[in-house]
Amino acid sequence: MDAVDIERPEELGRLALFADLPAGEIEAILRSCERMRYSEGEWVLREGETNSALYMIVDGEVATVIGDVDRRVLSKGSFFGEVSALLGEPASASITARSAVTCLVVPGGEVRDFLLAHPLLAVRMLMAEARRLKTASEWHA
Description:
Jelly Rolls; 5 helices
């Protein structure tokens, strides 16, 4: 898939997380998020940090690192940081950019209100969390 131009809201709808959202809602999401760019190899988040936020990847790939071991790769349309942001706890993993990465970021203290304002997005994130939990459970079985 080609890069997503987040300056053009209709392109954000190409990602599953935002698919079929009304244009007005996508524009509201863009207005309420900070755009952050990270270079390949740059740390986005470090395990144990307390400055929580919700990160939604709109371009590029990151690696989830726990205890110096790469655990999972997340690409555009994925998200991370939601657990520590919602629980007000330190990050449970580190995240490093595997390529140039662009994220939409919601500061930790605003995540709950952001998700309540965008219920379809919240449901999609909950479904992704359920898949992650199911996969982790099957892996440990």
